[in-house]
Amino acid sequence: MAGMSLAKLGRQIQGPLRDVLEVVIFAFILFILLQFVVMTVRVSGYSMENTFHNNDLLVAERISLDFSGPSRGQVVIINPPGIPGEQFIKRVIGLPGDKIEITGNYPVAGHPGQTQTAILIEPGGKGPWDLVEEPFLPQPWVVNTSCCLLSGQESATPTVETIPPNDYFVMGDNRNYSEDSRFFGWVPKSHLVSVVLFRFWPLTAFGGYGPGPTLVPAPYPPQGIT
Description:
With 226 residues, the protein is α+β, with helices and mostly antiparallel strands. It has two helices and twelve strands, in the order αβββββββββαβββ. The chain folds into two domains: 1-39; 43-217, Umud Fragment, subunit A (Ribbon), CATH 2.10.109. The mean pLDDT is 89.
């Protein structure tokens, strides 16, 4: 009888111990995810309007950057070159190997005499030039509209440069109020912190951030070649 009682007691203890062990394992897995895979981000400032707004809360992931770089159009958290201790949120516009030019006087096809600010990209530095279409911009882009120097920063006149290997050209969606690659140049992959997945606050705007830029055949060539 004593043996039966001890066995029964062991079974009674085993249930609570198993529950505690499951909680500990779950907490450990959650800790690993938060430390090495995902992170929460609070938007500070207005450089990504109207995609993201000041004080929006986002979820971002780090793990994909260990295997590949971000895609064009993805929103990333970066450590901006030359600005220690800061983290910015920007959109990837140019990829390693792309040729890129920004001009504020690009002709509007089918509208003689009209011009626009345009980003021209030759993907991978090969083939025909593409015009970057960005319907998500909140207002006409009229500030800092010439690029790029060899460093990737803005130039006095439109100039074509090639983005170096493992570097990226990033911009805020609110172009007139964004400190981005036009100011600090190419962003090395080592300065990429995470890739934004979705917004979780405010709940009224919960979800992804919509489509990024699209590349369409450029009706006219770039204006400056180095």
